[in-house]
């Protein structure tokens, strides 16, 4: 068995047939079948069931694929860095960010930043906090913004924001005229929950348990932006990242203070030992300025003011 056999096995797993794998790799179908047989022989287990021309992976194949994917993710990161070297210049900056800040907040900050005048070429990558952590650790990106559930061990880091979560709802919800939502109020409707591994969800549920409150969760989602849209559409109440909620307010989302102070904490991370160049410092300053603007918009929204445009 060779590394090429592993690559062919991976192609079969991702494409589903030996014919598609052969086309993907530019080799013959018999060559694909032979490589799969070599991997099976080496592993001494059956990796595929052959059903009507399709290769159905066994449990053993899925276990093997998990380990192989970790290798290829690292290899593809190196490959990406190599490809980008040709276009690298002193002003190039790569930022990886989790969706709560990456989908709307960072574009707002970039729009206000006048990158041309700063001589910065920016690459914005939106991904999960786990992926942000991996990309910073590997050196593929310069700046990472992630939620607090990931460990910062072995990385340079600082807290970017720690803002109390807000309760999001549709404009016609019975609680829309309340100034503050209490734990007991959350029993009045279905609830849109963040995923179970989210540290803020866990903190919310622990706090509610002390109050004797159990949520009627109807939808789970990993992203506050999805929870905001679901709440805006009337699916239920949601406890969301306040910065993620800003762009939904002009579209009809209502946010309210929650009587319990449960923060969403976000971190900026860097690879240790890597100097902060001037372009990096400039972007960090712009991000903090945008955060200040967004916090002012939040206060207006929480006081019931309708005007929450970017330039207010």
TrEMBL record:
Residues 1-58 form the HTH lysR-type domain. GO terms for molecular function: DNA-binding transcription factor activity; sequence-specific DNA binding. The keyword DNA-binding applies. GO terms for biological process: lysine biosynthetic process via diaminopimelate; positive regulation of gene expression. Transmembrane segments: none annotated. It comes from the Bacteria. Coiled coil: none annotated. It holds the Pfam family LysR_substrate. Keywords: DNA-binding, Transcription, Transcription regulation. PANTHER family: TRANSCRIPTIONAL ACTIVATOR PROTEIN LYSR. Belongs to the LysR transcriptional regulatory family. This is DNA-binding transcriptional regulator, LysR family.
